[in-house]
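Page 42, continued from yesterday. The earlier attempt failed because a stray header line got pasted into the input along with the sequence. Redoing it now with the clean sequence only.
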Amino acid sequence: MAEHLLVVDDLKMHFHTRDGVVKAVDGVSYTLDSGETLGVVGESGSGKSVHALTMMGLIPMPPGKVEGGDVLFRGTSLIAMNDDDLRKIRGNEIAMIFQDPMTSLNPVYRIGRQLAEPLIIHKGFSKHDAWARAVELLRLVGIPHPESRVRDYPHQFSGGMRQRVMIAMALACDPYILIADEPTTALDVTIQAQIIELMQEIQKRTNSAIIMITHDLGVVADIADKVLVMYAGKPAEVGACDDVFYKPLHPYTWGLMDSIPRHDILDAKTELCPIKGQPPSLIDAPPGCSFEPRCPYAQDVCREKTPGLREISEGHYAACHFAGDEGFERNVVACAGVSA
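This time it went through. Structure tokens are written below.
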């Protein structure tokens, strides 16, 4: 069997604070191959971004500490790498698009300089060649008049254009993996669609793998091959996109699905069905299943024993004691009076 491009194996990133140990990422596992897109979803604070920053070596240590697990990129451990070796990969073979392009771009440097820098550092380009490549990258991501815009500063770009610049910067060195952390946040729906379409076009052209971190299940349904659902730092469900969306196994995934407005089953007189309660503290997590206090299906075993991630069907995993059991099925938008 061919080696996976990326293997995340039981990764655990904890933060040691005055109040206690924050288990921000606690046992995440998945694989990713070239040309695949993984969608990572879950509520704020579920560990989505922290798991990606851990892979990139961007978590300050201390207070962070990798308490277990590993991340293998092309067979080599990223966790065991020293800083110098990791810098050769970061921004070169693995690149990341951050949530807020305005804070990710240096406001006092021209866009061209910021695009040229990784090419000079990682690829050995001359300043002239790197600048010419910067113009090509801006053209690639659909920015008009790139020959002149390359000399502009970040504040001279709109939010959507800045996000395109961030994508261009991430793609400068033709990375094997592109990590997109909420790339469409705060953009209007038209620009969101353009950004997603751009990323798909570039993926087809380069055969790169994409890790899409987002709250938007619609985006995930549109572009992802596989989905990782995270809750309280742990994987709740992992599987092929169609399996997770059409045959979800975990009550938390059911809750996420039922929180989405559905024109096909809801009308103006019905209400949305949010997940009741709040995520647990990652310092003092409850015993048993972390979703138990909010789960309408919880039983005694859920309060006493932590469920492990189990393969319920081929390639489809869930961390629920009852996942796959006969009769344990989702009641679609039950609070709106609609059942499956």
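Notes: Confidence is low (pLDDT under 50) at residues 333-340.
Reminder to self: strip header lines before submitting.
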